[in-house]
Write a structure and sequence with these properties.
The structure holds three protein chains of three kinds. Chain A is mainly α. Chain A contains five helices and no strands. Chain A starts with a helix and ends with a helix. The chains are: A mainly alpha, B mainly alpha, C mainly alpha. Chains in contact: A-B, A-C, B-C.
Chain lengths: 126, 298, 87
């Protein structure tokens, strides 16, 4: 419990991941599902960036002095998260385009109603 | 949903393809009625839905609690003896300036030591734009009467509207935004920023210009052909710069462009051209998303 | 506890409250506005973790382009109130 209080960044990241996951799973509105997916993504990036932080050191930009390892924060998680942010925006844009096309056919955002209408359509053409 | 014979192999093929196999129509309906409510048949649909949601929240909370228990066993936050700082980080920081020539160690890492990751990410952006073009571009197959009417009305209304504040403001601010974006891209290896952020800034500037002056004004200098040429050209340039390692092995050849003095803009070998490529791709993609979502064409 | 730690904990609590609020609002436009605020606070937290590259990128991409795309989806599907499309 004490240790959890000390690792407050990772704990907050995990709680945010849980909230985003619950949104993705249980909301019936399609747009809120993808807001939940975005929240999950940013929670994972927060966790990764928190693994690279070291107390008392600065960002990895060498302005003066030598490039000794004791002066800088770990730069590797930063590079991973940079790629991840761009992939997250690509996935969001593509899924929103899919939502627009779904709306044009079924005229609703509700996932349950779309499944019901799709099943009725299948039964009718059967 | 074709009716398939009862043989085992054809059933397996149908299952792989996602088709249902029904032996007899009447028999199928009869079976459906029988298996309607196998578990707890006395509950109504609303109660089932409520039970499903409560069970979902419960299982997700247990999942979060398990993850929190894992977090309490992780190494301490911010300690210098983390297992994450190993000999890889030592090599990147201590030989970073000599081998890559970049002062911003993160930019030097993602564009020199790990250039393939950035290449894959540019590919993902390009793929997303192509998919959105396939879904939303208006042409012969994707034609909808009501939407066309609303779009034309929107265009007429925007032409009549006289947004003086927005137009004057954009005339002052848009060159500044573009200049700032170009500055962030060019100084990617000297200060925080780089290709992605600079490209997003330029894309946001183009979105502002589109909002103020209409899409016909943007199409004078940025139409679909140029968008294709810029995206494909920059992606192929990135590929040509960095995929010779497939043929020469991991110990790559010397850089064609000399490294220069760290601290100048013209330094860092291939990092500056790659930053420009990535920045252009990201700018085109961000504006492309906006244009496809509002008007259906770039 | 120094002041900087107290501010960081406050920002994290604000993040969690925003994420909870997004799931409970029925009006879609308000939910997307709260999501925009969530993204901006995230960008400030990156600065506390000494990664300025991530802060600039998240501010430009998360609070900029993603939220604009969400609003455009609402406009395309005629869900925005007060505009010509819906009342």
């Amino acid at each position: 419990m004490e240790h959890l209080m000390h690792n407050y960044y990772e704990a907050a990241a995990v709680i945010l991941f849980g909230i985003g996951f619950m949104n993705l799973l249980l909301q019936s509105n399609l747009i809120k599902k993808f807001i939940g997916l975005n929240i999950m993504d940013t929670a994972v990036y927060l966790f990764l960036a928190a693994k690279g932080f070291i107390y008392g050191r600065v960002a990895p930009i060498v302005t003066s002095g030598e490039a000794v390892i004791e002066r800088f924060v770990n730069p590797v998680p930063s590079g991973l998260v940079l790629t991840g942010i761009v992939v997250s925006v690509s996935v969001t844009a593509f899924s929103l385009a899919l939502i627009i096309r779904l709306y044009k056919v079924y005229h609703t955002f509700d996932m349950d109603e779309i499944m019901k209408l799709a099943r009725e359509e299948e039964k009718r053409e059967y | 949903m074709a009716k398939l014979p009862k043989g085992g192999l054809s059933r397996f093929v149908a299952w792989v393809n996602g088709e249902e196999v029904v032996d007899d129509l009447k028999h199928g309906h009869h079976k459906e009625k029988k298996t309607k409510a196998k578990y707890l048949p006395h509950l109504t649909m609303e109660q089932r839905l409520l039970g499903y949601r409560i069970l979902g929240v419960l299982i997700c909370s247990i999942f979060v609690l398990i993850l929190l228990a894992t977090v309490s066993k992780l190494p301490t936050f911010g300690s210098p003896n983390n297992p994450a700082s190993n000999e890889v980080v030592e090599r990147y920081i201590e030989s970073g300036i000599e081998e890559t020539g970049a002062i911003n160690l993160v930019a030097g890492m993602i564009l020199d030591y790990r250039a393939f990751d950035t290449f894959g990410e540019s590919n993902v952006l390009f793929l997303a734009v192509i998919s959105v073009v396939m879904l939303l571009k208006r042409d012969r197959n994707n034609f909808d009467e009501d939407d066309e009417k609303i779009l034309n009305e929107d265009i007429d209304l925007d032409d009549e509207d006289d947004n003086i504040i927005l137009k004057r403001f954009t005339m002052i601010i848009f060159p500044l935004i573009t200049l700032y974006g170009v500055y962030v891209i060019l100084n990617g290896h000297l200060s925080p920023g780089g290709g992605f952020s600079g490209g997003a800034i330029i894309g946001a500037g183009l979105i502002l210009f589109d909002t103020a002056f209409g899409q016909s004004a943007v199409r004078k200098f940025f139409n679909f052909k140029r968008f294709t040429y810029i995206s494909v050209g920059c992606l192929l340039t990135y590929c040509a710069c960095k995929s010779y390692s497939f043929f020469t092995g991991a110990n790559h050849l010397e850089n064609i462009i000399p490294k220069g003095i760290p601290g100048n803009i013209l330094s860092g070998g291939l990092i500056l051209p790659l930053n420009i490529c990535v920045g252009l791709i990201v700018a085109c993609t961000m504006y492309g998303f906006y244009a496809l979502f509002t008007r259906g064409e770039i | 506890m120094e002041i900087s730690e107290i501010i960081q904990i406050l920002l994290l609590v604000f993040l969690i409250i925003s994420a909870l609020a997004v799931s409970f609002y029925k009006n879609l436009m308000q939910a997307i506005l709260i999501f925009m605020g969530y993204s901006t606070i995230m960008s400030i937290i990156w600065l506390f973790l000494e990664s300025p590259d991530l802060a600039i990128t998240e501010a430009a991409v998360g609070a900029g382009v993603t939220s604009v795309l969400f609003f455009l989806t609402l406009k395309k599907t005629h869900m925005l109130e007060g505009t010509r499309d819906n009342g």
